[in-house]
Task: structure prediction
Amino acid sequence: MAHDQFALLAGAAPEEVQELLSHGRRRHFSAGEVVFHAGDPADCVHFVRGGRFAVRITTEFGDVATLNVVGPGDSFGELALLTPDAPRSATVAALERAETLSVHEIDFRRLRRARPQTDALLSQLLAGRVRRLSEQLVDALYLPAETRVRRRLLDVAAAYGGDGGPGADGATADGASVPLTQEELASLAGTSRATVNKVLREEQEHGTLELRRGRTTVLDAAALERRARGFG
Result:
């Protein structure tokens, strides 16, 4: 993956990005491997070069909730760049064989000093994270569970659609094959596995997706989107 494809570094001078990433450490993860746990010291940011990762939290009642799925071109652990003394707020684990470039906050601090506009880019990225979590909170409070399942499936399909990963030009959810179990989709949507199974069966009957063991392939993202917005 080209260095200029990382969203967090968009707009920075190529030579400065090259310098920053030259200090990075390439890390490889197997499916299910934990990158870091909630509560661990936060001292670096991870740029995703390949594969997908789940961002999860554990509630006070012991339930595990999946907040997001990130893929190539994305990053996670950005709070370490703003508050390096604070602990990690979530647990991140690889959903498949994956690779990141880990950059220490000290090296990123040098880039921020050299190019103050990097702070604006970081703030913009974090603001986007907050907006997304706010939208999910509204969904959880006011939308039926079946609608949440459809919307979260579309979100994850976007992360698996296209060769460029989430946010890449031309990426599409059509044909995206999502290798998440129904339990994982239920965690992402904040509902039960039974509800996820019901919704997926209904969508298969409508021809918007195809179900296989441990995998869901989106066939018609536009139709699924309409149904997720209450128009289908």
Summary: Residues 162-171 have pLDDT under 50 and may be disordered. Residues 103 and 161 are 27 Å apart (CA to CA).
